Amino acid sequence: MAFWWKKSPKTPSDYVKHLNEQLDKLESASAGSDLRKKAQDECGKYIAGTKHFLLKETDPVPTQEALDELYYWIYQSDLFFTLLHSFPNLDFEARKDVAMIYCICLSRSKDNKFPTVDYLLTKPKFVSMLLKTSEVCITRPGGSDIFLTASGMILETIKQEQLCRLIIRDQQIWKFFDFTRLGSFEISSSSLQVLTELFTTHPKLVSVEFFSNEDNMNQFIDRINKLMAHGNYVTKRQSVKLLGTLIFNRVNKNLMTTYINNSDNVKLVMILLSDRSKNLQLESFNIFKVVVANPRKSKPVLDVLVKNRDKLLNFLEQFGTDNKDSTFLDEKEFIVEQIEALPRIVPASGEYTLGTSPQKNMVL
């Protein structure tokens, strides 16, 4: 790309100005027209050139003063907004370069500060626009590729705690739960990754800003339960793993207490505990052991455990017999002891036992 910059000397402000002009032409041109294709090609050239300039891959190598000036005009012209607005209409390589430019700018530090983060904090609508872009892209041709690139930008944004706060407050995050069930495998996996990083990267922030709100917590439990109950294998396993990670973190004590004291939640975990997949069984066991170890079980939860006492003991006798991990074996022994200590009742006729069929896992 070095030759492209030599066509005519340009200042950093010119680079941004010309890119914005081409983006305007891209949006005004009719879909499928020659003008649209030409503008798309020009946008790709200017975007790639900007990326190489930021990476100091041009000849001559830009000075630090030139780089600072380019960053200044990127912020001054609100280039991120324009790029994001045109994002679905750019070609594949240009979208990748936009994501690269965004990541480079996000990680830029100067005088112990992150100028791009500070800039975006003054433009909270950008984060909302970034989340919206993911939804808009799903229904477009090549939507999976566009969604994956946009999701990568969201993941980079989540790494910045102050920007993560903006995301966690945005109602659009709930749509990523839907994307995991309605989209392609790529979209589903990427959505789960976004949700996992969003809720685990900054635990204290999420605890204070999100789970302290009862409506948020209840809606999260409802959404994660649906993924655990009705998702495909990957969705189920990753959802159970995410829930377990959150429950085990002490900062999420309210979430843990609320979840494990609800009998419907416990029944779902018991269903997953008897899934045919050993990996899913093990992830579910990590949640189930918290339920059993809880010294202040709610009466509905205690009733479920008592009704299933013998069935659980029979199941646990065969559970994880090939697992030699000492920690797992100690935990399993403790859980068995706790269940053995529960009151024993004579089961009524027709009650189901733990087995391979999810519908026959427990007494409801």
From TrEMBL:
- A Pfam family the protein falls into: Mo25
**BP-aspect Gene Ontology terms:** intracellular signal transduction
Alphabetically, the GO molecular function entries are: protein serine/threonine kinase activator activity
Please report which protein family the annotation says this sequence is part of: Belongs to the Mo25 family.
Specify the protein name: Protein HYM1
Q: Which organism is the protein's source?
A: Kluyveromyces marxianus (strain DMKU3-1042 / BCC 29191 / NBRC 104275)
Name the gene behind this protein.
Answer: HYM1
